[in-house]
Amino acid sequence: MSLHIQNLHAKADDKDILKGVNLEVSKGKVVVIMGPNGSGKSTLANTLAGHPTYEVTEGTISLDGENITEESPDVRAKKGMFLSMQYPPGIDGVTVANFLRLAINAQREETQNPLQIHAELVEKMKELNIYESFLTRYVNVGLSGGEKKRLEILQLAVLSPTYAILDETDSGLDVDALRIVSEGINRFRSPETGVLLITHYNRILEYVTPDEIHIMVDGKIVKSGGPELALEIEKSGYDDLK
């Protein structure tokens, strides 16, 4: 059982961005995509999640054997897919507590006891070293980059999807925030879940050990390997792969 991407081509604004991506994220695995800026990493993440800006022109996306290439983002989410965005938008006037409560109710397709949800949120926040007062803040409004990323990891912990797509979750984090985010990813990791971790740098891989690393350049995967590949990129960069 896996998230399976076969010969995936996608475009935005009539520009071809993904040019035949083949990839599999199996349960129990952390699969890493690395690559230079503009290589198509975020396009891949958004296309997998069903973002309407990106049009699949060829290929398929399958979730545990089911073709979801044409499914809407909410259907994909209910089937077990989660996207942590590189630049999560702010929602003024909506508190984190209300946002997560609505997300939980939508996912479980029935109204949950608010007190039970609150207790669940507080428990998860303790695990992630996030202050309870965070619940009263507006979603991504006035939050630092690190706080936004912590909120994404809190969503991951609360919603418990089957497959997590994490788009540059380590971007702009200080050491403490990076550690907390990494701990959240490691807590999520299990034989029943799969992680697609998209990153530009090797830094987060000091905390989250990958099973596979794939290098993306110009909309295609050009090299694959194990954890040692990240060290190779750290030394030589991406120029030789372009």
Please characterize this protein's 3D structure:
By secondary structure, the protein is an alpha/beta fold. It is globular, with a radius of gyration of 18 Å. The model has no long low-confidence stretch (mean pLDDT 90). It has helices at 41-49, 73-78, 96-108, 114-127, 145-159, 175-188, 228-236; strands spanning 2-12, 15-26, 30-34, 55-63, 66-67, 81-84, 91-95, 138-139, 163-167, 194-199, 212-217, 220-225. The longest helix is centred in the middle third of the chain and has 15 residues, at 145-159. It contains 7 helices and 12 strands. It has one domain (2-241): 3-Layer(aba) Sandwich (Rossmann fold), CATH 3.40.50.300. It has a 6-stranded mixed sheet with strand order 6-9-10-3-11-12, with helices on both faces. The chain has a 4-stranded antiparallel sheet with strand order 2-1-4-5, covered by helices on one side. It has a two-stranded antiparallel ribbon with strand order 7-8.
Q: What key phrases describe this protein's structure?
A:
242 residues, alpha/beta, Rossmann fold, six-stranded mixed β-sheet, 7 helices, 12 strands, 30% strand, globular
Topology:
Blueprint: E1 2-12, E2 15-26, E3 30-34, H1 41-49, E4 55-63, E5 66-67, H2 73-78, E6 81-84, E7 91-95, H3 96-108, H4 114-127, E8 138-139, H5 145-159, E9 163-167, H6 175-188, E10 194-199, E11 212-217, E12 220-225, H7 228-236
Parallel strand pairs: 3-10, 3-11, 6-9, 9-10
Antiparallel strand pairs: 1-2, 1-4, 4-5, 7-8, 11-12
Helix pairs in contact: 3-4, 3-5, 5-6
